Amino acid sequence: MKEISKKVKEIASRLLSEGQVDVFLAWEKGNQDYLTRPLVVRSAEEAERIVFDEYSIHNLSNYLLKFRDGNEKVGLVVKGCDSRGVIRLLEDNQFSRDRLYIVGVCCPGMKDPLKAIKRNSGLLQNIPDDDKADKCSNCAYPNPLIYDELLGSEQEPNVKGERQAKIQEIENMSPDERYEFFRENFERCIRCYACRQACVACNCRVCIFDEMRPQWVGRENNETDNMMYHLVRAYHMAGRCVECGECERVCPVDIPLMLINSKLAKDANEFFGPYEAGIKYEEGSKPALSVYRLDDPDEGFM
Amino acid sequence: MKILSKDKVERVLDKLAESAEVFVPLSRANSSGFYSWKTRNPEKEQLMLETLNVYLSPKNVGFPQTEKMYSIIQSGTEAQIKETFEDSSPRIIFGLRACDARAIRCLDDVFLTRGYEDSFYKARRDNMVLIGQACYEPGPNCFCQAMGVDPLEPEVDIVIRDCGDKGYIWETKTPKGEELTTSISNLLEEKELKAPEAKAFQTQVDYEGVAEKLKGMFEHPIWEDLSSNCQNCGICTYVCPSCHCFDIQVKSWGEEGYRFRCWDSCMYGEYTAEAGGGNPRPTTKERFRNRFLHKLEFFSERYGYPLCTGCGRCIVACPTGINIVNIINEVKEASVDV
Amino acid sequence: MSDKCSCEQPLVPTVVEVVDIQDETPDVKSFYCRLSEGGVPFNVAPGQCAMVSYLPVGEGMFSCTWQEGQEYLQFAIKKVGLLTDELHAIEVGQKLGVRGPYGNGFPVEECKGKDMLFIAGGIGLAPLRSFIKYCFKHREDYGKITIVYGSRSYADLCFKEELFNEWPAIKDTEVYVTIDNPEEGWDGHVGFVPAYVEEINPNPQGVIAVTCGPPIMIKFVLQSLEKMGYSDDQVITTLEMRMKCGIGKCGRCNIGSEYICLDGPVFTLTQLKQLPQEW
Ligand code: SF4
Ligand code: SF4
Ligand code: SF4
Ligand code: SF4
Ligand code: SF4
Fold this sequence. Notes:
heterotrimer; A: 2 domains; B: alpha+beta; eight-stranded mixed sheet; 12 strands; globular; binds iron/sulfur cluster
């Protein structure tokens, strides 16, 4: 990891000083060992701050949205999950490939700085000390799927299957049990929309939840509006979610959003597949469920 | 002095819950917050009086995340306000820490002073009793003292002091507290206990002069840098005990409807978006700057003390590692003539 | 400064009836509202605002005109979004909610004995108009009154009757009107407001200038006034921000530590220059 960190620093500083990129997205160290955090670098000197370590978990592809309207060339580091996020943005025409310089890192799995700080905060109980973050224990693509330069040695997928088992368990519930399961979870939601903000697939310029004419989803924090929020979010993720796990990771009240996302991914694959979101970028390729054809065999809701 | 022995805590809470809704620090799933004692699920939720504090602040007790204000009827050109919903049912917050008690004082100043009393907040607040807990062992992200809060003396009606196995010292501070103490006096004992030694703070920060210095730093390049990894997710404002921004919205169907208010966040783009399409805070930088200036400068200018109480929650919650203590430090170090 | 709202529930509106609606321009209408039993729910000082709510849709803050003895509140409202679209569709007789009055209003007392220069653009004439009307009502208290007003086109000029007939006829009053682009049938001045003000070049001696309009116009007018020798204390303007509560609680209309709804919307340029430049 040290080696990779050093290389990333070198690459960033090279790209910035040669003017190949204007901005480079990576990580830096915060106050604690476990507090690695995203960093936006604009000069070779600043690149000295860069680190890549076992807490570099954040999906930096999301930060590309901050730059989508400019002309700046952006370099960034991607792990497997992040690279799928980049593909998501390319397929959604939110970024052009030639403005990107992608440094891929084969990812051995990360730890979650949020879990670590929470565990030590005195504010929460029972936060497990896993050696791998949840999202990394369910990762089918640890190796970058799009890159200009690749670091590290290829890693094996790491899918413990716990999530799929849980999904199966929910599929087997009666409708009432299932409703109760989700009601109980969504009841906790504080509607902060952090899951949306952290999500690379949530890249609409005006999000439906901010749309006021008409206002599709109410802003109240109650069963109806919370349920509505999660239903709409789920529908918008079908076939688009790249399973990077950021939404669930950032959720302040631990709502198991990945159960929903992975179920949707599974269904998208079964019904419209074989299909997995953001695993291969070809010029002009489109995610499933985002193509409209007049001769569509289903009526849909047009 | 009055002592509450630890094995009587639940009985006291039960007793209090007979005549008021009692909010206590509880764990809930992998989160925690102040929830109703009566409706807790004892199998899944534990009382958290002995850890430091809880993740979600008690702000919602006096200022719920969603609060119905009044109902309306409109039929053709006729319209009327049907009913208003000020809720003055009694509430008790049990075990809140000095930082959160200070945050309630901030909310009091916002909602009850400067020309207008917010009747919805007032109804709740007037019927609320605060039972605070002194902190002898600040956590890794606590910095209340630096923000002018004394962790040993929460600004509340009754203070409890944890003396380990021997129980809590029960100190009544106000007439409101007196009344409550009387109602449970048979559950308290008369005994002498010595409060523990207070431990040192792990996080040191010097807020002295920061509000004044920030006055000249609105256009400082520091904001671009500090905000560059913020995702505008708003978590920091939702977990913060003193962030008080709200939105007023309406829900209507057929001829009926109601107006409610709900928490809002200055971190959101929609917050200041104007009907005509403009937005005075178009990007992350302006929103981020507003939040931290409100906490550290604007509120002080208006009310004489900062809106950050040093509880450290936003530090724990921020998914991108933004830390208000670092921000204070960077402001202190920044050169202002750039 | 006028009374603060004395009501017990400052966030709950009072129901009023719309008794008249006038088209001012293609996208501005004036609404006249009063209590069903007659009279107004509260008094409003020049420059103050009130929250108007179309109950099932939403609330919005608008400048409100009222004068002592007047039986209704008047709002001139421009169509810009959800709420105002709905308001433009209502008919006479509609019941609306109003709450207020909000804000500090114009310093009408402090301006007594001065010459007044009013500079407005578009719908910005609405708040100034309440001050202008106040001056005319207390004509002896004020010196010379100069009004400079402009809009995109002739059709977009608000309050035409007062502008072209009533006000110019009042003694010691000058009214200058301009439109942005030449137009058939218009033989008045053509050009932007700030430039027109410089052309008229009113002497700053003993004058208070009050300006309101689109933010970009205000910025240029402030520059023009400075160029013509007006000191910051002689210049007054009003600011706009999105508002929800109107009573300094909900947080969103702050500029620095000032809340526009409570401490504004009226500021002297001196005060404005002490605030962060976020307007
Ligand atoms: S929905 Fe969650 S897992 Fe899917 S792309 Fe968005 S943040 Fe990643
Ligand atoms: S991050 Fe969690 S609490 Fe926030 S809106 Fe999403 S699901 Fe709800
Ligand atoms: S910030 Fe202070 S009062 Fe709050 S929990 Fe920490 S030590 Fe206690
Ligand atoms: S929690 Fe962190 S990332 Fe989210 S809005 Fe606050 S400072 Fe920004
Ligand atoms: S700003 Fe952060 S540390 Fe300060 S009171 Fe709010 S949550 Fe606590």
